[in-house]
Structure formats: C-alpha cells, structure tokens
Amino acid sequence: MARRKRFLSVALVALVALVAVGSGVAVAADPEILLGFTPPVTGASAAEGALQLKAIKLALKEINAAGGVNGKKINLIVVDNQSTNPGALTALQKAVEQEKVLALVGSVKSTQILAMSDAVKNYGVPMMIGGTNATLTKQGNPWLFRVRPDDSIAAAAMVKYIKEDSKLTKVGILHDSDAFGTGGADLVEQGSKAAGLTVVKREKYTTKEKDFTAQILSLKNAGTQIMVLYGTNPEDVAIIQRQYRQLGSPFKYIGSPSSQMKDALNLSREAANGLLAVADFVPGQSEANKKYAVDYKKEYNEEYDSTSAWTYDGLNILVAAIKKGGEDRAKIREAILATQGYKGVLGTFSFTPNGDGLSEVSVVEIDKGMPKLLKVVNVGAK
Amino acid sequence: MNTRAAKPLILSLLVVAVLVFPLEVTSNYWLNLVNLSISFSIACLGLNIVLGYAGQLSLAQAAFWGVGAYTSALLTTRLGWPVWPCMLIAFIVAGLFGVCLGIPTLKLTGHYLAMTTIGFGIILQLILINAIWLTGGSDGITKIPSPWLGSLELKDPSTFFYVAAFSLLLLTWASIRLKDSRVGRAFLAVQGNEMAAETMGIDTTLYKIMAFALSAAYGGYGGALFAHSGSHYISPDTFSFDQSVVLLAMAVLGGNGSAIGAIVGATLLTLLPEVLRFLKDSYMMVYAAGIVAVMIFMPGGIAGLVKGLPFALRLRAWWNAGSAATQQVAVSVATRDGVGGRPIPAKVASGAGSNGTLLSVKDLAKHFGGLKAVDGVDMEVRRGEIQALIGPNGSGKTTILNMLSGLYVPTAGEISLEGTVITGRKPHIITAHGMARTFQNIRLFGELTVLNNVLIGQHCHSKAGLVPSVVQPPSQQGEETGMRKKALEMLEFVGLRGKEFAQANSLPYGQQRLLELARALASDPKILLLDEPAAGLNANETEVLIDLLFQIRDQGITILLVEHDMSLVMNVSDHITVLNFGKKIAEGAAEAIEKNQEVIDAYLGTEVGNA
Amino acid sequence: MDLSTNFQMLTAGLAMGSIYALVALGFVLIFNAVGVVNFAQGEFVMVPAFVAVWLMDMLKIPFPLTYVITVIFMGVFGIVFQRIAYYPLRNRTFLPVIIATIGVSIFLKNAAQMVFGAEPFLMHRPTPPDVLNLAGVFIDPQYIVIIVCTLALLAFQYFFFEKTSLGKKMQATAQDKDMARLLGIRVATMIAITFAYSSILGAAAGILVGPIFYVTKEMGGMLGLKAFCSTIIGGFGSVPGAILGGIFLGVIEVFAAFYISSGYRDAFAFIMLILVLLFRPQGFFGEKIAEKA
Fold first, then answer.
1. Model-level pTM greater than 0.80?
2. Range of the domain at A67
3. CATH number for the segment(s) C3-279
4. Across the interface, do B285 and C270 touch by the CB < 8 Å criterion?
5. Among B145, B305, B565, C149, fewest CB within 10 Å belongs to which?
C-alpha cells in the first residue's frame, strides 16, 4: 500500500509538472503562414467538426499545391473548441497567443462566435465565421466575416417561397429550442406576419429529442398548411422527416439547411423525397461547386456535405485576401471587404461593409436522396 | 516557528502572490484559464461543503453556477445595476435555489438523492432555455459588463484576476473555518451518522438545507465570476448535466472534505485538457479513464493521497499544535490529578422536587402495518432512578426507546418528560428537552475524532450559528473553549483521556461504547436512554460500566436502560419493567421480578443469572 | 381535442414508454443485484447499436447473425464492465461507484466516436418501413416489435427468476450476498451473470431502437436518465414497477408535450420523479425499507 501510494504521488507530481510547464511551444519553422481553425473536434458537435475538417483540409491541400501564398505554404493550426463556449474562447486565445496565427477560420455555432467575439475584437484578428445568427455582423465587431447566408436571408427566402410559389397562407413552425432554431423561427414568424401570412402555431423541441408526435399533431390540429422546420442536428431532422411521413404528411414541409444536409438525408432516405428546404447551395449550381463535388469525391470517396463547405470557401477567401494585402491583419481585413464577385462553392461572394459575404440561398427539393435546385432566391443582405 | 506567527506570514505570502501573479503571467490565454479555474474552484468549494462535509450528493452544481451567472448578468445588463452588488445578489439568489433543492431531497439518500439533483439541474437548464422572456433563451446574454474599481474597469483577464483570486481566498478561508466549528461539526455529523446526529440534538433538516444553500450560493458566486469575465457572454448550453459531472469529478479528484483539495482538483481538470491537446480526439477518453482510475485507486482523491505522506503528517502535526483545541487539551493534561473516576462537576437535577415522575408513558403503541410492535404500554420513570426495560427479543424494547427519543412516531399514546408532552416530536427537540441516548449498534461519528464526537453531543446547548462559525468572534471562541472543557471532563469521567485526537473508529469496541456514553452525557441530559450498553463487553468492562452508571445516577441523572445481561440488570436497577409481545407483563423491584412466574416463563427461564 | 389525435399520441407514448421500460429492465437488475446505480446503462444501449451497424453495414453480415453476435458481444461486455467499474469498488460506498460508472459512460461515448467517427449512422430495419394503419392510428411496425419484445422479455424474466434454479440463486444473491455465500452460491459468478444479462438487455434495446433513433454516440444519454426515472417512479427494485413506470412516463411525456409545453418535455420526467420521491418514495410498486435503529 505504501509503495502504491508513493507511485501514485510521483505520478501525480509528474502530472502537475506537465500541466505547469504547459504546452504551446511555438514550433519554429521554415517560412510559412500560420492560420488557425477552431472546430469542435470533441464534444456534442463533433460530427459537424469532422465534416468541417474534411472541407477545410481539401482547401488547404489545393492552396499549398498551387504554391501557397508567394511561395510560402499555409500551415493550418487546428485547435479543438470542445463544442463549448468557454472552450471556444480558450481555443481562440491559444491559437492567437500561443500558436501565433495570423488569422482564423472560426466556428459555425453562433453562441460560440459570441463567446469569442470580444477577444477577436481586442486582438484585432480577422476571423471567417459560419454562424448564421443575423446579429453577429451587427455588433460593431469589424473583424468577423461571414461566409454563409445569414438566417434573415434564409428565413426571408422561405417566406417568399411560401407566399409566391406555394401560395399557402397558414404557416406552422417547428424549431429546435437552441439559439439557431429559435433565432430562425423568430425571423420566419416576423417575416410571415409582414408578408401577410398567418402563423397558426409554433412548436419547439429540445435538441436530441426522439419523438415528435406531439408537435406534429399539434401543428396539424392548428390547421397548418405548410410547416417550416428550423432544426440543428441531422438525426433530429431525420426522425422528424420520418415521423412526418408516418403520420400521413399532414401538411407541406420546408426546412432550414439542416433538412437537406448529407448526414440527415443519409438517415431519412425515402422519407425526405419531395420535401423542400433552403440550402446554402446546390450541386451543379455553379462551376465552382461542380468542381468541389468532384474534388471532394476524389479525395474522400464520398459525397460532399453542403453545410460544412463554408470552411472551404472561408479559407480560400482568407488566403486570397492575404495574397492581396500581405501578412498584415488590417490589410487582410480591407482585402476581404473588397472581395466582390468571388465565385465560391457556396455562391458568389460580395462582402458588405458589415462583413456579410452572401445574400442568396437556394430553395431545393429532395429528389432521390439529393437536393435538387428549384430556384435561387436573392433577397439582398439586410 | 510557531503557528501563531506562521498564519499571518502565510496570509501575506498569499496576498503578495496574488498581486504579483498577473504581472508575471501576461498571456491572456493562461490568465483566462486561471480565472476559469477559479470560477470552477469556487463551485467545487461549494460541492465540498454539501458533499464533503455534509455527505449529500449534488449533481446539480452546474445549474446553480448557471443561476448565479444569469442572476448577475440579467441584473447588470437589463437593469444596469453595478456589478459588485449583483454578484452578491447572485450568491444569495443561488443560495435560495439551493434551499429549494434541499427541501424535496431531505428524506432521500444515495441514489434517490443523486437522481433528484440531476433532475433539478436539468429542469433548471430547460428553464434557462425556454423562459425566453426572462433569460433571453438559447441566444444567451451578451455584453455582460465588467466590475469597476473606482474609475478602473476590470475588463482584462489580468485585472479581473484580482477579483477572482481574492474572492477565492476569502471563500476558501470561510470553508476551512467552517469545518472546525459548531456548524461544521453538525455537517460532519449528518454525514457520519444521520440518525445519531438527530438524537444528539442536531436538526438534520435544517443543516441539510443549510448545506445545500451554502453549496448553491458558492456555485452561484462562481457563476457570477464566470459571467463577468472571459467572454462576457453566457448561454444556457454551458450549464448542463455534463458540466455538473465535471464539477463533481473535480471535487472528488481533489478529495472529498478538503477545501484545498477542491481547488487543486478544479484547477487540474481545467488545465489538463489544455495540456492533453496533443492527444486530439482521444483526450476525452483519457480523461474519462482517469476518472475511473482515480475512483478505484485514489478514493480519497489527491487530498487523501497527500494526507498520508510523511511530510504532510508532519505539517499537519505542526499546524495542529497551534490550534486552540490542542493547546487546551495539553493544558488540562498538565493540571489534572488522578486517573479516571473524577466526578462530573456537581450538577443538581433541575425541576421541582427531587423525587417525582420524570418520564411518563401512557398507552404507548406502535403498529407497523399489521404488526403490533408495541401494544399499549404504560410506564413511569421516577427521577433519579435506574430503571431497566427487559424482555425477549421482539418484545418492543428498542421500539419503545425509539419512540421515546423521537425516531419513531407512536401510533398511539402519550409521552411526557417532566410534564412536557413530547410525543412524536423530532429527536433533536427531545434531546434539547433533556433526553439523550445511546444505540444498540454503536452509532459514533467514526471518521471524526473522539473529542469532536463529544463536542457534537453538546450541540443543542450551544448556539453558534453559520456566521459566527465562520467569523469566529470572541464570543464563539469562548463558547468553543467552554465546550471543549466540558468535553474533556466527560472523557475524563468515562476514562478516555489521552485519546482526544484519535479517530473514533480506531478505538477498541469497549472504548467506543464508553465514547458513546460520554457523547450522550455531554448533552446535559435529565434522562439517559441506554440501548444494550453492555452488549459485547467483557466482564471487566461491564464492571466499569456498572460503576459509571451508579456515578451517573449519583449526579442526579435518571437512567432507563434496555439490557439482556441479567446480572447487570439485577445489580443496578431500582425498578424493572418487563415486556412481552409489545405489552407490559410485569414491573417492580429486582427481587420481585426475579420471582415473577410470568416473567420466568416468558424470558428468564428457571436459571436466573447470578446477582 | 379529437379522439384520433389522442389515440395517436397514446400510441406514441406507449411506444416510447416501452423503450424506457426495456432500458429500465436492465438497469433494475443491476441495482437489485449489487445496489449500484449504473449511470452507463444508456451506453449499454449505444454500444451494441454501433456494433450491430458495423456488422451489418461494414461487414455485410445478415440480420439474424448480426443480432446473435451483438448479443454475445454484449454479454462479454457486461462481464468486462463489472470487472472494471464495479468489482474494484464493490465494498465502497455508493459515491465512488456512481462516479466510476459516469466515467465509463463518458469513455464509451468518446470511444465510439474514435472508432466509428462522429456522424450518425443508419441501422437497417428488420421490419418494413411502411407504417401500419390500425383504425386510423398510424404505427411504425418497429414499435410493435419493441412492445412485443419487451413483453416477451418480461415473461422470460419472470419465468427465469421464479422458476429456474439459476434465477433463484441470482435473487438470493441480490437479497443477501453473505447468506448466499454461506449457502454455497458463487456470488461473484452470480454478479457477473447479472451484469451480463443486463448488458444483453441493453443489446436488445440497442438493436430494436437503433433503426428509429439512428445511431449516434449520444443516443443513450437521455434514455438512461429517463430509464432511471422510470424505475424510481415504478418503485426502485421492482421489475414490474420498472416496466409500468417506463410506460407511464412515456405516455405522460407525450401528452404533456402536446397540452402543456413541448420545450419542457424532458422536464416532465424529472418533475414526475421529484413528485414521486416527495409523496410516495417507494414508487407505485416498491417496498418501504426502514432503517433499523
């Protein structure tokens, strides 16, 4: 027993010493440019993180194969944000202070971006974000650059489609009670009312819910003609799609981008066919995303996922800005904002002074398990 | 160096360390992590109080952390109030939530308690998410202000560090002080043996609620610190059950019952993931495996591990040498004369007359469903006598004792002590009225020292509440000194001097029984209920016990004892009551009982023990 | 509200309820046997689900064989689990065991991610995906299979524990280990078998539930917690209590989500839990145990 205690004590001291010495010794390197990326490698959002890593690594590979920036390779430092808010802040600080990155591709989750926002502003470091909460670029932080269409655009597109194309008037909303779902639902509700539509019922669910019978029936009973679904997790969305079909498809369905993301369609299979959704982009919509589809398939031997492609575009736009402005953060910032008409995978980027890059989304219909373009909707950045 | 000089020196060293730290460590990354660790440490200090001291498991600590964070954030952002008072309000509001959790969980232990706290935590998080009108919902609260010190806004991690660090020092000091005080002892007693604590005069309900409230309050303050630093942003997803698990792991890793341990555990587990980043996606597995390993190999956590090391023992001995308790014990050893048997200082039995009925029982009954354990018993115990309650096993003796001491509520009947009706009152109130007891299966507070066990016996006649227990003003210190004096006298009386700082469960069986007796006597009882005090004692020890019983009676304390050792019973009893099948079948003086045929048939048999 | 909506919800409630009941069954067994709350019980459902998906999708093994292999795997898993998380702690108080099982739960979730990746998986269904229409009420055939299997397992369990010698030995061990030992029952073996059996019940749950919940590392989490609630509501330690508690919980949840609030659905399980513990702590079917003074 005494020996075991001694051994444990030594192990403990070693552990404490390890912690005290810490990590973050910057690796001296041949000239390269350090860029950071703070995805959720572990924790609840690890699935999205994995897809984002695939997308961004594809971009990295192509950029370095083409010579990097002025002969210097890009070194992408990945720091796990652990899917939490404190983790996101810590990851950012580690990337900027310890790894000394020049700029970053950040997170897709709006709450994590808010957690990092103050620090980003204090550091004055450019960060490409995928979060869609409309307020993110309106807080007076000049260092955030959004490379996905924000929720106000997606919501407006949905409302516009419902009013003009489906010609239905009674809208029911089902949403995840998290920030993304609630924010989107609020926008859809406001937009519907402004467009003269009636929101007959609004139901929500907690993330990872397994049974939606109550919510679907409640919407049905309220007279919903078309349901707007603002969901986050692919498996939640897949269960909704399946149960929706099983309960007799009591109304029409149009969903946020998660309704057509690859992971969700893989699970819901036939149930998703015929359902409508809003998507960042659609395969074949442009040359850029045709090429992306082909390259991704070649690299990973599987279909790409549209909701993670923002990291691909994000890194590319960032690197293009470095090429133009040099390794100076302020100049990179100007260069990004000056980017107009850039043809990325997600669409054509033209940055507004706020830092929003995209203002169009596509309305798609799921056909044989793949999203098929119905129409592109450009509602202009707000 | 003696401890009197050492304490202020250590304190100044700490203060200097705090002041200098942010000047040495300038990286925001590390400072932010340190501030985060402090916030967690304070939450773990709270857990240490409810779990480490009071033994109540709480898996809702992250929810209280969240309540504090939200309270302070909402008050400062929505109402624009200044930060300092809001953090204090967060402490209080979280404490109130802790009371809300404490109340439904009072009768629960172990797993039930664990599940209830989990449920409570999950419900709180759902409220944070869904009560959008109040909390802003999942979007969270942004732009939470920093505290101001005069005209200086403490918005960098380095300036906020001062707030965090000094808060930590203060709250740690409070936790450590709390442990060695009347309230702290009450917590430890509740953990050690709740039934015994209750009969020692501790209102276990009150103290459990207090423990939950304190723990929640600490958690809330830690959350407020978190809200006003770092991201200056909070959202509900941070305050999840998983986070409560992490906090629990931190507290347990640090070592249950150790305030410093809680801080070490929290800091290690906050900084460890940073260091293990090189493990990338397998670090969580290493972390989880580590938790299991700690549970298996280091159940006392780091504190437990460190405690047994030689240098720690020497440090503890040196530190304790300066404590008031040690000094008092040493002084009294030096001045006492003779060994054992010194009489308790004269304490005249109070109340009118010296020969009247002290305890009166009328028609007492206890039914467990269809089983009539006690079926209409009348008894009287006269002041100053030793009465024995005997009968075969299952005749209801212990049940009667349990009803008298308040552990069972009688199904029918009435019990009065000195004219006051005490039927069905709670045990700690009955103890305050002057009834103390010992148990058939010894119920000591095994992990506590002998001295502390006896001090706990005095709980209902002392009064230091929560604040005096922490602050320890002269009045409280005086009370403690007085309590220790009395405790030493009790120990002297039963013959346990010299063992004050031994752990109670390290004593041999016979001495444990004596300790239980000393503890009961410490509560200044008018009547002492003894449940098989001679069980397991050898002939010699039984002699000592008989001697003690006579001395106790001579001091004016009435005794009611349940016993199977007939020689003891016949020897000491002034009056004997005999039960069978829940009914009284005989009573009277020893000689009469010996010859009573019904008693012989039911219990004694024809061979009566030698008197 | 019209009848058909209520019936539909009742069906959904019974379906979810039987899933809770199934998981609760495994959980009650362990508690009865060794007095341990197994916080990893949800992962006992998640692990076999991943194993089954791997066998079916990667190795293309047909259904029946997959099920058999998964069940055997989980039996072994249960024995290994108890050796690691329970056995070294068997003489301690409940706290280290609770924490150790929580630790194992976290470990298993992350191990699943490491081995299988983070994306959700589709488990192929043995039943046809077309929903049945019984008198206007739609029901997914997989749910019928779940309900039938749960009842079958309940019947099997009754038969096993009451009528077979091994079952009675396991009961004896659960009630009084020392006495069982004195009677010549090999207690360590009985405990190992109990964990193995509970683990196998988890395998059944994982296989049955996988096609409906989809297979993710988080699929077991809330399921485990709600199964605990079910056992407490029904009466800790009571097997029929666990089943009825689960079904009761499933039904209450759906109706509360519909009529009161869908956002708070998860809260109802815990509110029920707290109410039961406050007013009827032995649950509906459990027994009051008094502490001997």
1. yes
2. 33-149+286-351
3. 1.10.3470
4. no
5. C149
